[in-house]
Amino acid sequence: MHFLSHLAVLNLAMLAFAHPGEEEHHHDRKAELNVREFKVAAKRGLSACSEKLQRRDFHNRAAERRAAKVDSYRRHNGLRARDTNTTADTSHLSSANYTSGTPESTIFASNGTCILNPEGETGPYWVKGELIRSDLREEQPGVPITIEGQFVDVETCEPIVGLYWDIWNCNSTGVYSGLVAMGNGNSDDESNMNSTFLRGIQQTDDEGVVTFDTVFPGHYSGRATHIHMIAHLNATLLSNNTLSGGTVPHVGQVFWDQDLINDVEATYPYNTNTIAITENVDDRVFSTETEDTTSDPVLEYVYLGSNLSDGLFAWVTIAVNTSATYDPNYSFVWTSDGSIAESGGELTVN
Ligand SMILES: *[C@@H]1O[C@H](CO)[C@@H](O)[C@H](O)[C@H]1NC(C)=O
Ligand SMILES: *[C@@H]1O[C@H](CO)[C@@H](O)[C@H](O)[C@H]1NC(C)=O
Ligand SMILES: *[C@@H]1O[C@H](CO)[C@@H](O)[C@H](O)[C@H]1NC(C)=O
Ligand SMILES: *[C@@H]1O[C@H](CO)[C@@H](O)[C@H](O)[C@H]1NC(C)=O
Ligand SMILES: *[C@@H]1O[C@H](CO)[C@@H](O)[C@H](O)[C@H]1NC(C)=O
Ligand SMILES: *[C@@H]1O[C@H](CO)[C@@H](O)[C@H](O)[C@H]1NC(C)=O
Ligand SMILES: *[C@@H]1O[C@H](CO)[C@@H](O)[C@H](O)[C@H]1NC(C)=O
Ligand SMILES: *[C@@H]1O[C@H](CO)[C@@H](O)[C@H](O)[C@H]1NC(C)=O
Ligand SMILES: *[C@@H]1O[C@H](CO)[C@@H](O)[C@H](O)[C@H]1NC(C)=O
Ligand SMILES: CC(=O)N[C@H]1CO[C@H](CO)[C@@H](O)[C@@H]1O
């Protein structure tokens, strides 16, 4: 039965995604207007926040927390930091010019308050109902990454406590877990319906912070390397460690420096992917999210050790309008019977 409904969706999917690789090219005038309105309002909200955050010592505390986390990861894994020059040269320079010799405390203290715009664009591969967990790697090979997200309320400038951060990205060879579809690896491999790798949800702490262990994404056709995200508010935690209800006040995507992507793509198994790379500058979502200077959707990062195989620590601050509500599209739901195709989201003809 599931297989039948799955096939029905796949047919719709084929119609909707007539051009593999352009899965996410859904131009929606209303959505674009909303993004624009959001940006204007968010800009106002954030310049108001900036002063308040400084006063509250928000950045200093964030810097200390990140430095401590990196230190603890390095200790745990017996790693030594890359020399500062290399780190400085390759770190994402969003709002400050790091020079050689810039101390770590300064790197972490950069305002780098990357403001993400709710794109109103979920992409086709959100799987609803994923598990609450912090380590998403399972057995996936690739460059290990630890991502810290900090959520701030754009109206009050306060950290958002109790928000659930839901993230997902493709694996090192460009395949998403939990679904079977054209353009997502081998579409004859039904077993991928039951995989959950590189997807998960976590709740923010008192500082509005969440940390995930995952794997640097690979790439697929027509899109630059990215990580998808959704924020859930007022959701109920069920006894089987999944969420129900609540609202979605934020939908977005984060990116990586192109130089870093190129370095990662040169390593195994990323380099076995034969699909052409789409660079950030050619990515439609990247362009929309970087339209104005208050928005920086590129993750800041440092090397945890001396090279990529030791992993990266990356971070982003996300301003959310908690009263906004989005209706993210999805076609698959994670259940106790594995992933099930649903005629939901953008695959529904309505
Ligand atoms: C937040 O969203 C509400 C409802 O859509 C809107 O009235 C308000 O202006 C927004 N605030 C900011 C700072 O974007
Ligand atoms: C870092 O870069 C500076 C300026 O280019 C140079 O003087 C210094 O020797 C470099 N340090 C290391 C450890 O390579
Ligand atoms: C960083 O340095 C470059 C080159 O010196 C300069 O053009 C740019 O304005 C600087 N950016 C910031 C944010 O200071
Ligand atoms: C961060 O932004 C505030 C307000 O715009 C500014 O005063 C401060 O110097 C900035 N700090 C850094 C480290 O860039
Ligand atoms: C959902 O899909 C529809 C149809 O493609 C699109 O117009 C809309 O913007 C999408 N919404 C989100 C939140 O992704
Ligand atoms: C990525 O996921 C697909 C689907 O499960 C799998 O076939 C492929 O081997 C994975 N890539 C790597 C490098 O493990
Ligand atoms: C990366 O660093 C580790 C030690 O931290 C080392 O064992 C490994 O050989 C290095 N890999 C490369 C490609 O340099
Ligand atoms: C968790 O429980 C809910 C409510 O009973 C159910 O709908 C959902 O399928 C379950 N999810 C999993 C992964 O077991
Ligand atoms: C997924 O797992 C469920 C529960 O273990 C099983 O019934 C189902 O046959 C599996 N589906 C696939 C496509 O492997
Ligand atoms: C109805 C409800 O519980 N609303 C809450 C949703 O979450 C926001 C942010 O945490 C709260 O401010 C609301 O009170």
UniProtKB/TrEMBL annotation:
<dbReference type="Pfam" id="PF00775">
    <property type="entry name" value="Dioxygenase_C"/>
</dbReference>
<dbReference type="GO" id="GO:0051213">
    <property type="term" value="F:dioxygenase activity"/>
</dbReference>
<feature type="compositionally biased region" description="Polar residues">
    <location>
        <begin position="84"/>
        <end position="104"/>
    </location>
</feature>
<feature type="domain" description="Intradiol ring-cleavage dioxygenases">
    <location>
        <begin position="132"/>
        <end position="224"/>
    </location>
</feature>
<keyword id="KW-0223">Dioxygenase</keyword>
<keyword id="KW-0560">Oxidoreductase</keyword>
<dbReference type="InterPro" id="IPR015889">
    <property type="entry name" value="Intradiol_dOase_core"/>
</dbReference>
<keyword id="KW-0732">Signal</keyword>
<dbReference type="InterPro" id="IPR000627">
    <property type="entry name" value="Intradiol_dOase_C"/>
</dbReference>
<feature type="signal peptide">
    <location>
        <begin position="1"/>
        <end position="18"/>
    </location>
</feature>
<feature type="region of interest" description="Disordered">
    <location>
        <begin position="75"/>
        <end position="104"/>
    </location>
</feature>
<protein>
    <submittedName>
        <fullName>Intradiol ring-cleavage dioxygenase</fullName>
    </submittedName>
</protein>
